[in-house]
Design a protein that fits this description.
Largest sheet: 2 strands, antiparallel
Number of helices: 7
Strand content: 5-15%
Pfam families: DUF2225
Protein name: DUF2225 domain-containing protein
InterPro entries: DUF2225
Strand order of the largest sheet: 1-2
Bound molecules: zinc ion
Distance between the termini: 63 Å
């Protein structure tokens, strides 16, 4: 194989069909995070490694992301029954990817995870990443569709998830803001502010985000009050 200065080829043994294939990953020195948006979407300078996170087997169509946990035994039977057998011709997106290829890769990972009944948190993260990719394409309608879906999954994962709870709570409120559900955003941010167990980091993030939102709103419609978050 020829040396590529932008990508390296990662070797993968497919968890489903056991065949080996290689798939591109961005070389670490080819990207840099220059900004993080309010819903944690990283903005990269150079290439975007987000496009290469999901490995899609060109032989059988199984899609794998490192966050998946139900990747063995009886779950593989479910994946066979509900995903592989339903799949048309497997696509080959193992080399350079467009944003559309990346969207396809996450949608396949989403379908695999749905088949193996992964946790709502993981499904929410996939939906959020698909929304981010649509944001990069300026496809607002599709972005909103996946933000709604991410928010649904996050709300289902509230009770079940201890670790990363404040991040999910924050994302829930932030996504609510982005899809225009201001009442729910306000409730979510208030919950974070009033909860003593919330870390300083998220407390600060929350107040700053709400202040900025109110400021923007105020600038847009200077005669309309949006209310106080801290009572
Ligand atoms: Zn395979």
């Amino acid at each position: 194989m020829a040396f590529n200065i932008y990508y390296y080829e990662s070797s993968v043994d497919c968890n489903f069909c056991k065949k080996r294939f290689t798939t591109y990953k961005v070389r670490p020195n080819r990207f840099k995070i220059i900004e993080e948006q309010t819903d944690f979407m990283p903005i990269y300078e150079g290439l975007n490694p987000l496009l290469y996170e999901v490995a899609v087997c060109p032989h059988c169509g199984y899609a794998y992301h490192k966050s998946m946990t139900r990747t063995y035994g009886p779950f593989m039977l479910l994946i066979d029954e509900l995903y592989i057998k339903e799949l048309q011709k497997p696509i080959n997106i193992c080399k350079e990817r467009t944003i559309d290829d990346a969207i396809a890769s996450y949608k396949l990972a989403y379908l695999v995870s749905r088949a193996s009944m992964e946790e709502p948190l993981l499904m929410g993260n996939f939906a959020l990443k698909i929304a981010w990719l649509y944001r990069l394409k300026n496809e607002v309608k599709s972005e909103m569709h996946y933000l709604y879906s991410a928010r649904d999954f996050y709300s289902k994962s509230f009770a079940s998830n201890q670790e990363g709870e404040e991040r999910i709570q924050y994302l829930y409120a932030e996504i609510s803001l982005r899809i225009g559900d201001i009442a729910e955003a306000k409730k979510g941010f208030s919950r974070l502010i009033s909860n003593r167990n919330v870390s300083n980091k998220y407390r600060k993030l929350t107040s700053k985000r709400w202040e900025n939102y109110k400021y923007d709103e105020h600038t847009l419609r200077s005669n309309e009050s949006t209310g106080e978050i801290i009572n």
